């Protein structure tokens, strides 16, 4: 969004993002996929609660593959294939 508003200004930039979002979402929805955008601001209280949930086993990420940072190109290709059943984690 920032790139579009920097390039076209606020009004045209937001319009450009909306049109691109709609086109991407429509095409993906036809294939059974959905894209969504969100903006987040870090919140210490929420992060502490998530940490507590993770420590108590209430939140468990599904990790499909752990790869080294040197394997970044292969990891990118794997994630780009959109066939993952869990998270791909990079370790460096």
In short:
By secondary structure, this protein is mainly α.
What would you note in describing this structure?
It comes from Heligmosomoides polygyrus. InterPro entries: YIM1/Zinc_Alcohol_DH_Fams. This is ADH_zinc_N domain-containing protein. The chain has 92 residues and is mainly alpha-helical. Among the domains are: 1-30, no CATH class; 61-91, no CATH class. The chain has 4 helices and 2 strands; from the N terminus they run H-H-H-E-H-E. The chain has helices at 2-8, 10-30, 44-55, 72-80; strands at residues 63-68, 87-91. Strand 1, helix 4 and strand 2 form a beta-alpha-beta unit. It is extended. The protein starts with a helix and ends with a strand.
For the largest beta-sheet, the strand count, sense and barrel status come to: 2 strands, parallel
Strand content: 5-15%
Principal-axes geometry comes out as extended
Strand order of the largest sheet: 1-2
Number of E strands: 2
Write down the overall mean pLDDT: 87
Briefly note the structural class of the backbone: mainly alpha
> Are there runs of 5+ residues with pLDDT below 50, and where?
none
Q: Helix count?
A: 4
Distance between the termini: 30 Å
Order of secondary-structure elements = HHHEHE
Amount of helix: 40-55%
Task: Please give the radius of gyration in angstroms.
Answer: 18 Å
